[in-house]
Amino acid sequence: MGKRDRKKKFKAKSLQRKVDQLDQRDQGLYKPKKIVFGFSQLDNTQGQNYEDWEEYKILSKALARVQGLYSMTINEAKQSQLIKEYGTVIPDGSNFTKPKHLPEDIFWCSMRIGAVIRIIGYIESNYIFQIVFLDKEHKFYPSKKKNT
Questions:
Q1: Which CA distances in Å does 99 have to 31, 45, 104, 125?
Q2: Average pLDDT, stretch 112-131?
Q3: Which of 65, 92, 132, 139 is 20 to 30 A from residue 29's alpha carbon, by CA?
Q4: How far apart are CA 138 and CA 133, in angstroms?
């Protein structure tokens, strides 16, 4: 194939996209991203670590929940009440404090694993759940007992 033939084959018009990705979002054709999980922010100095959860046979439950959430968007998980958003401040009465390396403007969230078992973190880029604490006793956002 000669040089002239290559230039004809790769003209700018033939390489342009028919519909830009931003146009797809505006038209409602863009699929929202499914939840992914980040483990780089995990703070083992507060709450528990993986070994503790494995000893109490919670780790497999947590992994099953995480696997189930991979097929959902953040909004679907919030509507199903599997993820709950709290706000930018750690609640009063919490046994946890914000690690210094985290940004100030994060919205704390919890992922429900069992009756009182939670994974605490925050949502980044509207689809990444960054895990910060493992909370097997519901001590991040303690609530008053009902009907006791």
A1: 34, 10, 10, 20
A2: 94
A3: 65
A4: 11
- How far, in Å, are 70, 87, 129 from residue 79 at the CA level? 15, 17, 16
Percent of the chain with pLDDT over 70: 78
Which phi-psi region, left, alpha or beta, contains residue 45 (left: φ > 0; alpha: ψ -120 to 50)? alpha
Where exactly are the structural domains of the chain?
Answer: 33-135
Angle among Cα 144, 104, 119 to the nearest 5 degrees reads 45
Helix (H) or strand (E) holding 19: none
pLDDT exceeds 80 at position 15:
no
- Under 8 Å between Cβ of 53 and 59: yes
Quick one: pLDDT at residue 77?
94
Long-range (24+ apart) CB contacts under 8 A made by 87-91 are: 90/140, 91/140, 91/141, 91/142
- On the question of pLDDT at 54 being above 60, the answer is yes
Architecture of domain 33-135: 2-Layer Sandwich (3.30)
Is the pLDDT score of 40 beyond 90?
Answer: yes
**Beta pairing class for 118-124 and 36-38:** unpaired
